[in-house]
Design goal:
The complex is a heterodimer.
Chain A lengths: L1 E6 L11 H12 L4 E4 L9 E5 L7 H8 L5 E4 L25 H6 L2 E4 L2 H9 L6 E3 L7 H13 L9 E3 L9 H10 L4 E3 L5 H8 L4 E4 L9 H8 L3 E4 L16 H31 L1
Parallel strand pairs in A: 1-2, 1-3, 3-4, 4-5, 5-6, 7-8, 9-10
Helix pairs in contact in A: 5-9
Chain B lengths: L3 E5 L12 H12 L4 E4 L11 E4 L7 H9 L4 E4 L27 H6 L2 E4 L2 H9 L6 E3 L7 H12 L8 E5 L7 H10 L4 E5 L3 H8 L4 E3 L10 H8 L3 E3 L16 H25 L1
Parallel strand pairs in B: 1-2, 1-3, 3-4, 4-5, 5-6, 7-8, 9-10
Helix pairs in contact in B: 5-9
The chains are: A alpha/beta, B alpha/beta.
Amino acid sequence: MNIAMISDWFSTKEYPGGGAELVDATICTELNITTKILSSATKLPDEHIFIITNFFNISKELYSLLCSNKYSFIIIEHDYKFFPTRNPWNYPNSICDTKRFIELYSAAKKTYLQSEDQLGVFKLNNIPGNFYNFDCSIWSEYELDILEKLCYSSKNTPKSSLFFIVNLKNPGKGTGTAIEWCKTMRIKYCLSTETTWHMLMNEMAGFTTLVFTPGARESLCRLVVEAKCIGLNVITTTMPYGATASPFYEMDSNAIIYYLREKSKRNLEELKNTCNELANKSLI
Amino acid sequence: MKPITMISDGFFHDSNQSIGGAEMVDKTIADYLNITSFVKSDSLKQIPEDHNIILTNFYNISDNIKSQIINGPNQFIIIEHDYKFFPTRNPWDYPNSICPEQDKRFLDLYDKASCVFLQTEDQANCFKANNIEAYIRNFDCSIWSSEEIQFLNNVNKGVGSRLTHFAVIDSFNPIKGTKEAIDLCIKNKWDYDLIHKVDWRSLMKNLSLYTTLVFMPQAKESLCRLVVEARALELNVITPITYGASTSHWFKLNGENLTNYLNNRSNINLTEIKKILSEI
């Protein structure tokens, strides 16, 4: 039995993407997934089980096929796609009255969420499904080794007194708000210039403080966790979200890295086991 | 210019007086004007009749001293370090920072003073909003001595790598908001260090090791030298934009750009004090 990944798009060298794409790439590597299907496709290959990640632009055909119960699939939920804007903060009390993709969540064998906060919003909105809380994202060993190295070396790295803002075009990531906050507080800031994850982490390690003020409720937010891993203070919205509402966010750098390593291993194991179970059932 | 007597609740040379920003300003003014006559505001002393007076802190002023100032032959100016017409000296204790008419204090002193020097536009606005009758001049700054400015520049030049933790000043004075700054750090999960003040110079050296000061005053500061000095040392300051220094147009400056401004304004302000005292 093969595993295929379905997503709105996949990371490329030119467009490496963000946290969701990094997670997807790690899952593909660890589960030996080579079949990647865009969510805009209209057909599915037989004798596969599917991991669906981003599916906001899924085609009607694919949606119908997946909801027909003829296919085994799980969902890795990177945000809140049952909201038309994917952002609970656009809705009073994070309650959605025009829910989307309900049949898909219901038909999925499991839907993986990243934090207690994200799970709480799904429960609050009575989304049907079999939910499992990763209580973390998934980082590769390679990524964690880099974070660990930077955590160690950053103690001896000269720090800029400027505050650091990651220059993201996605308005939900609040780059404009972070800049405005710095201007209001008369704090000088530096916008990131690096685009690859590894180089961005190296760049960020030269600062003491990250300002990140998302306009959308993050399901976790790898960036703020990574900033904490390499010893930065994080100035972020007062409304808690994914990572900032998680207990591990209060730990010190080394403890967070250890936590991420253990959790990432367990979460990958969980995914493998579930995929194996689905494969075995399909064979029966 | 007539000889001058400085009157205050406490002086920088008193061994039991805690030295804050106000006392440092008073010392710089006294040094600049070669003042040798100091009278505590609660004393029973007689003020020499041929002296002009600089009244700085006078919250504990005795009837004796007040009566001499109001009714005597001496001319006087006020260096207003806070908001003494409020019974608590803190506008934030009152809705919209407006003091009820019947609670206002020292109105006769403000009215009779030849000049009341304030430190910021924000402080001046509060005096205006409360209709305090006085001839008000705005320093648009505090007063730093040239030695203090030089010291700030030297410390700043000597800074190597900075610490990642935020700095919080460990003050016993509740209005300096140590507890609130700590609470803010804890709530936001920011790593912080408490900085103890032994004396001003060691405080500046310690502060310069950091990139960021968290300061959450619980009283409306007329200026707040600390946050200005932090910016002179190129720290970022996380603080409400609701009081003296933090609302001032020049607070956007830092490092030497700021110390140049402070130096120029201090010289202008000292000259202005001298000029007014010469004219009265």
